[in-house]
Design goal:
The structure is a single chain. This protein is an alpha/beta fold. It contains ten helices and seven strands.
Length: 248
């Protein structure tokens, strides 16, 4: 019997059933829910998402990065949280123009001067080699068209000794959180997501994409394969989310 790797059997999950590329579908999905995205983020996580972003910031504190790139920045919540590190400049990049507009309004209303949000694709970052001290991405790597290509692009723009911090959903594995999370993600999350955003597909896609995305040691091995070193993973809130840290 031929050897089967986890990578070879991993299912590619897309938001919709159309023939468009995953990137195009992700862009359309987030454009459609941008008006309710921040509210749903806080509501569906019971406000814990703020603590998870704070955990990302702590992973960078001893590095004291001056230039930070936040990939899949969405409405800029993680970029804004990273201001606590006192960087000179933060660039946020995302596929969705509508999400970026929401983020720009938040930044403008807050009087923030050193965050710039730009439209762009994580598969082909327009930034120079070795140009950032730190790269962050919160709940975005699941949405990459090509995971390894996206990871290598982030490695390319990191300076030597720079740090990548990924915040991503994972699957609780112990009783009773595993069972509670399974029920919540399968039934309640899509119901509430549809009710408040009007897009049922988006909140069906979320738990399905988490289910099929590599996590823990598997993602650490992919990071090493892509050229990162000193990789580590830390579980948050009973394993609902995980932080991955890697160095160039």
């Amino acid at each position: 019997m031929p050897h089967t790797t986890a990578e070879s059997v991993r299912k590619e999950v897309k938001p919709y059933t159309s023939e468009e590329s995953k990137s195009a579908q992700i862009e359309a999905m987030f454009d459609s829910i941008s008006h309710r995205y921040d509210f749903l983020n806080h509501f569906l996580s019971f406000g814990i998402d703020k603590k998870w972003r704070t955990a990302v910031v702590k992973e960078l504190r001893n590095l004291q990065p001056k230039k930070i790139l936040d990939v899949a920045t969405g409405t800029g919540d993680l970029a804004i949280a990273c201001l606590d590190l006192k960087p000179d400049h933060i660039t946020g990049v995302d596929l969705s123009a509508n999400m970026l507009e929401v983020g720009r309004k938040k930044i403008w209303d807050s009087g923030i001067k050193n965050i710039e949000l730009e439209k762009g694709d994580s598969m082909n970052l327009k930034y120079a080699d070795n140009s950032y001290d730190a790269v962050t991405v919160a709940y975005g790597v699941r949405n990459f068209e090509d995971l390894e290509k996206g990871l290598k692009e982030m490695l390319r723009v990191l300076r030597s000794g720079g740090r990548l911090v990924i915040l991503e959903f994972s699957k609780p594995s112990t009783f009773p959180m595993k069972q509670l999370y399974g029920f919540y993600s399968r039934y309640l999350l899509p119901m509430w997501g549809k009710l408040f955003s009007g897009n049922a597909d988006a909140y069906r896609y979320l738990p399905e994409s988490v289910q099929h995305f590599p996590e823990g040691n598997e993602l650490l091995e992919i990071l090493k394969k892509c050229g990162y070193s000193d990789v580590k993973c830390r579980r948050l809130t009973f394993g609902i989310s995980s932080i991955y840290v890697a160095t160039k």
